[in-house]
Amino acid sequence: MMTRKTKTTIGLIFLNIFFIILCFLTLVPILYAVSVSLNENNSLLSSNFSFIPKNFTLQNYAAVFVEKPIMLWLKNSLILATSTLVIALGTGIPAAYVFSRKSFVGRKLILRTLILLYAFPSLLSMTALYKLLSPMGLINTKVGLIIVYTGTEAVFALWNMKGYFDTIPHEIEEAAMIDGATPLQIVIRVVLPLAKPTIAVTAMMVLIYVWNEYIFAINFMTGSDTYTLAAGLYSLQATEMNGSWPIFAAASIVVSIPILIVFFALQRNMTTGLTSGGVKG
């Protein structure tokens, strides 16, 4: 008769096998794109297709940087992502702390209004945003797109950070105050270090949103020199329907690399818990 420990071990083995298979299935589209990007033949679907390219070549990746303005699109995306990230976190984090720690008239009404606005489909607000930005000359400009992105992501940062600040015990701040710390020092030296994991997750979510967003980008940015990476890929797909799918696949892989680098750089902070931070503090 199997012991409880043996049953637990067998259960964990099957669970690990299940997740390995699940991870492989989720990687199939990525592996497919990599295979197409390394294939010299211009084929997307064929009966003799294999994940290992029969006509291996790196020419498609070279064509991405030589024939397509990928570096210009990368520059535009970096400017938009960095600006949106700084403004959204710079306004969302202080606002989240205030809403978490302070009580004032209209607090609940403001929070409910913000969540209602955030839940409103952005696609339905496109016409209104266009009419608001057009008289100010902000259409086809990075500033206009940053305003649109920040308006959405600042609310997300506020709500995401507020939920985390609510879980931080008030006793930690009270202890710091007894030790002579000022309110500003409490926030900078106590609260923010504890909130580092959530700040990392929030920053990552904001970055992914801006990096992948293309609906506003293709409608508010009309020139190819102002395209973001997502908008550029969309236009590339539209023009490559009868062209080179391997080049499009290569461009898709190249666009994904910066996000992967940022994710692995933030992975340690994203997996750090509140309890360990409190103990170390």
Task: Describe the structure in your own words.
With 281 residues, the protein is mostly helical. It is built from 13 helices and no strands. The protein has helices spanning 4-37, 59-67, 70-101, 107-119, 126-133, 142-165, 170-178, 183-194, 196-212, 215-220, 229-239, 245-270, 274-280. It is flat.
Structure summary:
With 281 residues, the chain is an all-alpha fold. It contains 13 helices and no strands.
Query: Averaged pLDDT, please?
Result: 82
- Give the number of domains: 2
Extract low-pLDDT stretches: 273-281
User: Nearest-angstrom radius of gyration?
Assistant: 24 Å
Give a topology summary.
Layout: H1 4-37, H2 59-67, H3 70-101, H4 107-119, H5 126-133, H6 142-165, H7 170-178, H8 183-194, H9 196-212, H10 215-220, H11 229-239, H12 245-270, H13 274-280
Helix pairs in contact: 1-12, 2-12, 3-6, 3-9, 3-11, 4-6, 6-9, 7-8, 9-12, 11-12
What distinguishing features does this structure have?
281 residues; mainly alpha; MetI-like fold; 2 domains; 74% helix; flat; disordered C terminus
